[in-house]
Amino acid sequence: PHEIQKRAFQYTEEKGVFEEFYMRASTGKNSDYNGEDEDRILAFCSMFGFLCHNYKDRANNPCIVLTDYDADGRTRNGGRGKSLLIQAIKHVKETKVKGGMEFDPNYTFVFADLEKSDRVYAIDDVPSNFDYESLYTNILGDISCQRKGSKAESIDFKESPKFMITTNWVIPYDKKNNSTNRRFVEYKFTDYYNLERTPKDEFGQIFFDDWDSEEWDRFYSFVFRCVELFFDKGLIRIEYNKDVDNYKACF
Questions:
Q1: What are the CA-CA distances from residue 85 to residues 61, 181, 218 (Å)?
Q2: Which of 43, 73, 204, 222 is deepest in the core (most CB within 10 A)?
Q3: Which residues, including other chains, have CB under 8 Å from residue 236's CB and lie 6 or more apart?
Q4: Which residues contact 229 (CB under 8 A, 6 or more apart)?
Q5: Are 190 and 80 in contact (CB under 8 A)?
Q6: Running DSSP on this structure, what letter comes out for residue 230?
Q7: CB 161 within 8 A of CB 120
């Protein structure tokens, strides 16, 4: 059971503010999309659909990593909308959100508060030295939840959450490291939104809090279209040129 099930819903083809925000954040434009932009939008929508549905395949269940275009490895230029995507998912699925500095993979009780009802596990704003490899087993296997004062409980892969990570830092890439590449898929948010231009500035409302029933219909209709795309095309990856990222990460 989830509190969103109390909302009435009627499907509509109308584009809502969240869908418009998502297109702008992913392409860096608000109109005149070209073929490359359309491909990027489809990839971002498939990723949203992937996170909004419980279907899991052990052979293809990567952790979604949300990063920034043109991250320089030295300064943090956030405010691009990554955390807003987490908020959107929370209105679809039970989502556990942990701060990047709060999540310590080496801590015995790191998953002490994880429940079987949690379908997405979001680690928000991880530092530049975050140990991604520490999540290998949790992403494609069962999760052992050590509760304080009691014995560990194992959550089966089929009931465990999908993982997503956000960061403002550049992430290196080794094309020969198949284990890592199979477990993590990166999506870069453009700098269309930033500290000077926010979704509230453009749309004149606080997302989710200021929505009426019609806007919620547009939002959930977009969710269903993204899930349909994920079922039809699978999780669409974006091939980024990581040479510059690797240089920045090293130097």
A1: 19, 23, 16
A2: 222
A3: 42, 43, 46, 47
A4: 42, 45, 46, 49
A5: yes
A6: H
A7: yes
122 forms bridges with which residues in the sheet? 97, 164
Query: CA torsion angle for 136, 142, 143, 149 (degrees, to 10)?
Result: -150
**Please, which residues bridge with residue 165 across strands?**
65, 123
User: Are 80 and 25 in contact, with CB atoms under 8 Å apart?
Assistant: yes
Chain mean pLDDT for the chain: 89
Strand partners, 188: 67
Give whole-number Cα distances, 117 to 3, 154, 175, in Å.
Answer: 13, 14, 35
Tokens 């942990």 sit on residue: 98
Highest mean pLDDT among 129-133, 168-172, 238-242: 129-133
Torsion angle defined by CA atoms of residues 107, 159, 237 and 198, in that order, rounded to the nearest 10 degrees: -70
Indicate the pairing of strand 153-155 with strand 143-145.
antiparallel
Alpha carbon 161 to chain centroid, angstroms:
12
Taking the CA atoms of 181, 37, 78 and 86 in sequence, report the sign of the dihedral they define. negative
Instruction: Give percent above pLDDT 90 in the chain.
Output: 65
Q: Which H/E stretch holds residue 98?
A: strand 95-99
Chain centroid offset of residue 225 CA: 17
User: 63, 163 in Cβ contact below 8 A?
Assistant: yes
- 169 near 73, Cβ under 8 Å? yes
Residue 184's region, left for phi above 0, alpha for psi from -120 to 50, else beta, is beta
Kind of pairing between the strands at 95-99 and 120-124: parallel
Q: Give the pLDDT band (50/70/90) at residue 7.
A: confident
User: Would you state the structure tokens that stand for residue 21, as one six-digit string?
Assistant: 């925000």
